[in-house]
């Protein structure tokens, strides 16, 4: 309403002014078409004056809408006073959980980066160890190949000399002139005698005598491999335990301490070769199972010697 009508209605006590509403029909009683002015406390319903005097709400405790509304607002304020701290508490809990999630994600990202870097270093060290072992094997192969080639050449020369003698003797055996045969024996009797002695010795012993040549040092290769792996494991263990990571040199002469540390936590399982067996490729490896125990320095040296003896 306008200001003029508002002033006129506001001067009367009987006129109850309310805020403008979009649907005024909702404020009227559906049965009596009168304005709902009261609130039934027992049934929790808004009613008109007709229901209070002669209706189903007769004799019930009723209140004016404003009074009932204020009482309900007071209750709601009390509830609000309890809910507000609870909401703040819930918000603080959610904030702490968000902080925990953020810290967890940062920690997970850090661990991911650390583990990725760790495996990158492991692969790099394994590649270095592999190159070192392959280089050692190639070097030994080259040295032994040169020795064997030289010995083969000597035996080939000896075989050619023996073939020449055999042909010469066969020619003498095919000669019909006895004087020529006898004169040849007189002039080169020592050479024939040596051939006869070699022939008799060959009949007594059929084994082929081959000059002694060194074999591939599988023990050294296996020791270098185990020492390198032990150094890598020691470095990884130190990194995972939060220790300062140090540069590890894959040197078989300086990485012995790392090998001893790993051996303290590993029980060697060795396959002892038979007397007539040959050491196959990779047979010098020591398959170990984890088992924590304390071993003295003397016992470690004894175990190391036993491993070397078993490999040999």
Automatic annotation (TrEMBL):
<protein>
    <submittedName>
        <fullName>LOC495216 protein</fullName>
    </submittedName>
</protein>
<dbReference type="GO" id="GO:0008270">
    <property type="term" value="F:zinc ion binding"/>
</dbReference>
<feature type="domain" description="B box-type">
    <location>
        <begin position="24"/>
        <end position="65"/>
    </location>
</feature>
<feature type="coiled-coil region">
    <location>
        <begin position="62"/>
        <end position="172"/>
    </location>
</feature>
<dbReference type="InterPro" id="IPR000315">
    <property type="entry name" value="Znf_B-box"/>
</dbReference>
<feature type="compositionally biased region" description="Basic residues">
    <location>
        <begin position="290"/>
        <end position="304"/>
    </location>
</feature>
<feature type="region of interest" description="Disordered">
    <location>
        <begin position="280"/>
        <end position="312"/>
    </location>
</feature>
<keyword id="KW-0479">Metal-binding</keyword>
<keyword id="KW-0175">Coiled coil</keyword>
<dbReference type="InterPro" id="IPR003649">
    <property type="entry name" value="Bbox_C"/>
</dbReference>
<dbReference type="InterPro" id="IPR051051">
    <property type="entry name" value="E3_ubiq-ligase_TRIM/RNF"/>
</dbReference>
<keyword id="KW-0862">Zinc</keyword>
<dbReference type="Pfam" id="PF00643">
    <property type="entry name" value="zf-B_box"/>
</dbReference>
<feature type="domain" description="B-box C-terminal">
    <location>
        <begin position="72"/>
        <end position="198"/>
    </location>
</feature>
<keyword id="KW-0863">Zinc-finger</keyword>
């Amino acid at each position: 309403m306008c200001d003029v009508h508002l002033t006129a209605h506001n001067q009367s006590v009987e006129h109850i002014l309310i805020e403008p509403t979009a649907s005024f029909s909702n404020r009227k009683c559906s049965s009596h078409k009168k304005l709902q002015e009261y609130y039934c406390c027992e049934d929790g319903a808004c009613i008109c004056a007709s229901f209070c005097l002669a209706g189903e709400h007769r004799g019930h405790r009723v209140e004016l809408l404003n009074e009932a509304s204020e009482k309900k607002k007071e209750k709601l304020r009390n509830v609000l006073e309890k809910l507000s701290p609870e909401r703040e508490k819930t918000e603080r809990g959610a904030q702490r959980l968000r902080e925990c999630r953020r810290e967890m994600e940062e920690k997970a990202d850090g661990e991911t980066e650390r583990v990725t870097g760790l495996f990158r270093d492991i692969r790099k060290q394994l590649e270095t160890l592999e190159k070192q072992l392959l280089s050692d094997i190639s070097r030994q192969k080259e040295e032994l190949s040169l020795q064997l080639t030289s010995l083969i050449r000597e035996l080939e020369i000896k075989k050619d000399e023996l073939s020449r003698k055999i042909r010469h003797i066969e020619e003498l055996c095919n000669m019909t002139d006895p004087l020529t045969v006898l004169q040849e024996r007189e002039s080169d009797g020592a050479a024939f005698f040596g051939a006869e002695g070699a022939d008799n010795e060959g009949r007594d012993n059929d084994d082929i005598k081959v000059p002694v040549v060194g074999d591939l040092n599988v023990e050294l290769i296996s020791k270098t491999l185990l020492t390198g792996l032990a150094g890598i494991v020691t470095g990884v263990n130190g990194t995972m335990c939060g220790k300062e990571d140090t540069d590890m040199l894959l040197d078989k002469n300086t990485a012995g301490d790392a090998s001893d540390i790993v051996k303290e936590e590993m029980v060697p399982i060795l396959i002892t070769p038979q007397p007539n067996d040959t050491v196959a490729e990779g047979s010098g490896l020591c398959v170990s199972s984890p088992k924590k125990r304390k071993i003295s320095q003397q016992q470690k040296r004894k175990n190391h010697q036993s491993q070397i003896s078993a490999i040999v």
